[in-house]
Specification:
Largest sheet: 8 strands, mixed
CATH topology: Rossmann fold
CATH superfamily: Alpha/Beta hydrolase fold, catalytic domain
CATH class: Alpha Beta
Structural class: alpha/beta
Number of strands: 8
Helix content: 40-55%
CATH architecture: 3-Layer(aba) Sandwich
């Protein structure tokens, strides 16, 4: 028995050593925003003080546009996900995009309140700060839910709505990126606040693309480095706890704004069945599905996903 106990003790010691080595190898402390702006906040990026945060913002195109286009990114993303759309649309429309609280370079909310209604209030505050009385609002994934909730909260301010693989219905994924899974697991999510293997981010990004071969090293750099922005990992854990997906899908039927629904046919996080639910619940809405694209069609193939958008805007 003593021999067996010694063997077990040795195995436990080896496992602990392996765990310590793994943690040490993937140790990634938070990075101050000042270390990230040089690469990820080049012009036309600016920072705007709103609600106690310095909000990372890009405001492009003609200022005389009476109905600007506002673009909202998804979880663990950033305003950069709209680069392709912004470049094309800003030729003749004012295009506004910003990093949401707890994400990107904007960083965490001072009160650590990440309920969906707080995000809606934040969007309203941004519209006020930018003197936008009426807009077209588009959102991807979590940003899609913020977009349609904003349209419900401020119907007089939203002219049209564009939902891109948007959240809103009970969460029934085919596959969840590993980073999102860890962020929902107690103890592991606490560890994630101090460790972050770059390979975990790469696997997560590849998971949401229809064609994982389109994921470049620079794209992984962007997701990886912006996740390390001070406070973002803690904010992600808190938001998953405070804002569970799909708790009030019945509210979607109250939307009366002209709506375009875009979806990647290979989206495994929010499957195309959700697109059909949006189309069913929003009277008069239009739907376009891109069979080869995944969860972020605006990023994976901006040109293809923009065709339906330009028609809708006209």
């Amino acid at each position: 028995m003593k021999a067996i106990a010694k063997i077990l003790a040795a195995i436990v010691s080896l496992l602990l050593l392996a765990l310590v080595a793994a943690v040490a190898a993937s140790w990634e402390p938070d990075r101050p925003v000042s270390e990230l702006t040089g690469r990820w906040a080049r012009p036309p990026s600016v920072f705007l003080p709103v609600r106690g945060m310095s909000v990372h913002l890009r405001d492009e195109g003609p200022r005389g546009d009476p109905v600007p286009i506002v673009l909202l990114h998804g979880t663990s993303s950033s305003l950069h996900t709209w680069d392709g759309w912004a470049k094309a649309l800003a030729q003749d429309r004012r295009v506004v995009r910003f990093d949401l609280p707890g994400i990107g370079l904007t960083g965490p909310s001072p009160d650590e309140d990440y309920r969906i209604e707080r995000y809606v209030e934040f969007v309203g505050a941004m519209l006020d700060a930018l003197d936008i009385s009426r807009c077209v609002i588009a959102g991807n994934s979590f940003g899609g839910q913020v977009a349609w909730e904003t349209a419900l909260a401020y119907p007089a301010r939203v002219d049209k709505l564009i939902l891109v693989d948007a959240a809103g219905y009970p969460f029934q994924p085919v596959s969840v990126p590993i980073g999102f899974r860890i962020a929902r697991i107690p103890l592991l999510n606490s560890l994630m606040e101090h460790t972050l293997p770059r390979g975990l981010i790469e696997a997560s990004v590849r998971n949401v693309y229809g064609d994982p071969e389109k994921v470049t090293a620079e794209l992984v750099d962007r997701y990886f480095e912006l996740t390390l922005r001070a406070g973002n990992r803690r904010a992600l854990v808190k938001r998953f706890a405070q804002a569970p997906a799909g708790i009030h899908p019945e509210r979607i039927k109250a939307l009366k704004v002209p709506t375009l629904i875009l979806w990647g046919g290979r989206d495994r996080l929010l499957p195309p069945a959700d697109a059909l639910s949006f189309q069913r619940d929003i009277a008069g809405s239009r739907l376009a599905v891109f069979g080869e694209l995944g969860h972020v069609p605006q990023e994976e193939d901006p040109a293809a996903s923009l065709v339906a958008v330009k028609t809708f805007l006209r």
